[in-house]
Amino acid sequence: MPDFIYLASQSPRRRQLLEQLGVRHELLLPNVDGDEAEDTEAIEVVLPGEAPTAYVERVTGLKLDAAVARRARRGLPDAPILCSDTTVALGRTIYGKPDDAEHAARMLAELAGHEHRVLTAVALQVGGKRLAALSVSRVTFAAMTSAQIDAYVATGEPLGKAGAYGIQGRAAAYVEHLAGSYSGIMGLPMYETAQLLRAAGFPL
């Protein structure tokens, strides 16, 4: 059994959470150009009528498929490959990463004063076997004035984050209540991830 895993994610928060678990890992990321340039935006497009749970599980599976192919193409040593994806949902509406500051402000205005769900799917490829888990948390945002939203967006923190916020950053000032997995909201639910790694033979 290898003593490390591949992490197919650019997120520094996911790396940090894996380190917290004490899991040795190496990044398995696509090259930014050439034949390995992957169209992540195309993978993350929501299908018509797609429910948030189906969406986040499908996207995670597609990202893991790409990572499995990447490892084989590069001739890298065999080891488990971990992939994760997070989305925010208000009812059946899916909130991915905002396109720009204006889009982020619109998202936050819709989430403010309501409870939303944060869904994080995790998948682990171990040889020919795929293990998967889903973490669902509920977050209630306090009401926010447009000035508060603009000030938060101006920090740049919402860009690149599902739902246009990072719970580990300044958005915490507006989180009235949460139920579920704090690490799952950050992007990698540690309990579910540890379960998958134990099932794969890692001594956690």
UniProtKB/TrEMBL annotation:
The record marks R13, T86, Q168 as: Important for substrate specificity. It catalyses: UTP + H2O = UMP + diphosphate + H(+); dTTP + H2O = dTMP + diphosphate + H(+). GO terms for molecular function: dTTP diphosphatase activity; UTP diphosphatase activity. GO terms for biological process: nucleotide metabolic process. Its cofactor is a divalent metal cation. Its EC number is 3.6.1.9. The keyword Hydrolase applies. Keywords: Cytoplasm, Hydrolase, Nucleotide metabolism. It is an enzyme of class 3 (hydrolase). The active site is at D85 (proton acceptor). Pfam families: Maf (PF02545). Its main location: cytoplasm. It is found in: Cytoplasm. Belongs to the Maf family. YhdE subfamily. Nucleoside triphosphate pyrophosphatase that hydrolyzes dTTP and UTP. May have a dual role in cell division arrest and in preventing the incorporation of modified nucleotides into cellular nucleic acids. This is dTTP/UTP pyrophosphatase. It comes from Acidovorax kalamii.
